[in-house]
Amino acid sequence: MKKFVSFLFLLCCVNFVYPQGRVVESLELNSRVLGKTVKYSIYLPANYNAAQRRFPVLYLLHGYSDDETGWTQFGEVERITNDAVSKNEATEMIIAMPDAGVSWYINDAAGKLKFEDFFVSEFIPYIDSMYKTRAKKEYRSVAGLSMGGYGTLIYAMKHPELFVACAPLSAAVWSDDHIIEIPAKDWTQYKFNELYGSNQEGKARLTKHWYSNSIIKLAETIPVEKLNQVRYYIDCGDDDFLIEGNMALHAALTRKKVKHEFRVRDGVHDWTYWRTALPEVLKFITESFHR
């Protein structure tokens, strides 16, 4: 009898285990804009296949030198999201993670690599057509780390009609002075010469294309009404080498009266910091999806 009762207890426990979402890695789509195959990973909520409902979407962008598996392998997005959903701290959502290579998520100056065009005109419509998304601004958000934080801000500021919220983590935000002072070796290594259209040094790097993709310049020049169409959650570690640029962005948004959340926590530019940031990002994104 005791064994039977124990069996029933275990069976009940199994039945009440919260269903888990899952990640599918390195799927492919053929891009007309880029002229190549692009890989992406996707997190699908629990019972996605059986669900009659549609889900909001978070586009989660990786950093420099990573790919579509960065957030799944090192960021533990599946575990963290499942945990947040099970605690009712995040709503069920689809999370799409594209491989951006070292594109910095923008169109380069020569128009050879148009990743921003791909993301806006192909990737978002593809995800909306292939998955059970709620294909409206009110249910679409973007977040990312480092290079992906830069891309997050680019997309949110330039395309506020597409996103309800954004969450850049340790975002690569630079001032004009920083761009001028980057060593020549780093300038070419990180492909800034191709991105911004200058092989020269000093102020010659401050090209028209740089200013059209400078986060600080965008914050200063885009109308406040347009910027305020998106909710911002900005987070950077106090010992991160990018903290100065993030603080400058915070100051620029504050002066302009752009609503935003700004967090500085103890930490550096690493996965430990970003993993601990993700639960708060999911909470913020969830709040943004609510009406």
Order of helices and strands: HEEEHHEHEHEHHHHHHEHEH
**Roughly how many Å apart are the termini?**
52 Å
Largest sheet: 8 strands, mixed
**Structural class, from helix and strand content?**
alpha/beta
**Number of helices, counting only DSSP H or I runs of 4 residues or more:** 13
Bulk shape: globular
Strand content: 15-25%
Word description of this protein:
- With 291 residues, the protein is α/β, with parallel strands linked by helices.
- It folds into 2 domains: 18-174 and 215-289, Alpha/Beta hydrolase fold, catalytic domain (Rossmann fold, 3-Layer(aba) Sandwich), CATH 3.40.50.1820; 175-213, no CATH class.
- The chain is 42% helix and 18% strand.
- The protein has an 8-stranded mixed β-sheet with strand order 1-2-4-3-5-6-7-8, sandwiched between helices.
- Helix 3 (77-86) crosses helix 13 (271-289) and helix 10 (215-221) runs parallel beside helix 12 (243-256).
- The protein starts with a helix and ends with a helix.
- The model is unreliable at 4-16 (pLDDT under 50).
Q: Could you give a quick summary of the protein structure above?
A:
The chain is 42% helix and 18% strand.
Secondary structure: elements and pairs:
Elements: H1 2-15, E1 22-31, E2 36-44, E3 57-61, H2 70-73, H3 77-86, E4 94-98, H4 115-130, E5 140-145, H5 147-158, E6 165-169, H6 176-181, H7 184-189, H8 192-196, H9 208-211, H10 215-221, H11 224-227, E7 231-237, H12 243-256, E8 261-265, H13 271-289
Parallel strand pairs: 3-4, 3-5, 5-6, 6-7, 7-8
Antiparallel strand pairs: 1-2, 2-4
